[in-house]
Amino acid sequence: MAGMDDDYVSVKISYVGFVDQVGLEGVVILKADDGREFPMRAFSGEVARHISRFQEGDKGAIPTIYNLVEEIAAMKELMLTEVRVYQTGTVLRANLYFQGRKGEITLRNYRASDSIALAAYYEAPIKVRKSLFEEALEH
């Protein structure tokens, strides 16, 4: 992964909210250390609520799919070490990097919104491909 580090920027979740008044569509703003921001939207409001809850430390009741990941990770002694967000076509995707006793496991091409929710749950680092920041500035 060392060579790939140059293609990605470390970010933090700086804002979680909704695009609409009823909370059907979520939005999250990812902020780099240098102040650049990458807004991400067009995902469910339910996922936005989970991200917000996880950030606030509420990890008691997690959705079934995240619970599935948590159970498998616990059984196999895996820890989420990083999430990397990138674009494929017009869709945002992410790779999830896990570390365990027997080495690394990479899960590829998952929904970026769910991957960010898992990163918030595990308090794992999030990285975004640099080119996404450049495209955000052009629009």
Gross morphology: globular
Q: What order do the SSEs take from the amino end to the carboxyl end, as H and E?
A: EEEHHEEEHEH
Number of strands: 7
Helix content: 25-40%
Subunit arrangement of the protein: single chain
Work out the count of structural domains: 1
CATH top level? Answer: Alpha Beta
CATH superfamily: Bifunctional nuclease domain
Ranges with pLDDT <50 over ≥5 residues?
none
Largest sheet: number of strands, sense, barrel closure: 7 strands, mixed
**Might you state the CATH topology name?**
Bifunctional nuclease domain
Give the integer mean of the pLDDT values. Answer: 92
Strand order of the largest sheet: 3-2-1-7-4-5-6
Give the percentage of residues in beta strands. Answer: 35-45%
Please state the CA-atom Rg, rounded to the nearest Å.
15 Å
Helix and strand topology:
Elements: E1 8-18, E2 25-32, E3 37-44, H1 45-55, H2 64-75, E4 78-88, E5 91-100, E6 103-111, H3 112-122, E7 126-129, H4 130-138
Parallel strand pairs: 4-7
Antiparallel strand pairs: 1-2, 1-7, 2-3, 4-5, 5-6
Main attributes?
139 residues, alpha+beta, Bifunctional nuclease domain, seven-stranded mixed sheet, 4 helices, 44% strand
Task: Give structural notes.
This protein has four helices and seven strands; from the N terminus they run βββααβββαβα. A hairpin with a 4-residue loop joins strand 2 (25-32) and strand 3. The protein is of the alpha+beta class and 139 residues long. A seven-stranded mixed β-sheet has the order 3-2-1-7-4-5-6. The protein has one domain (3-138): Bifunctional nuclease domain (Roll), CATH 3.10.690.10. The chain has helices at 45-55, 64-75, 112-122, 130-138; strands spanning 8-18, 25-32, 37-44, 78-88, 91-100, 103-111, 126-129.
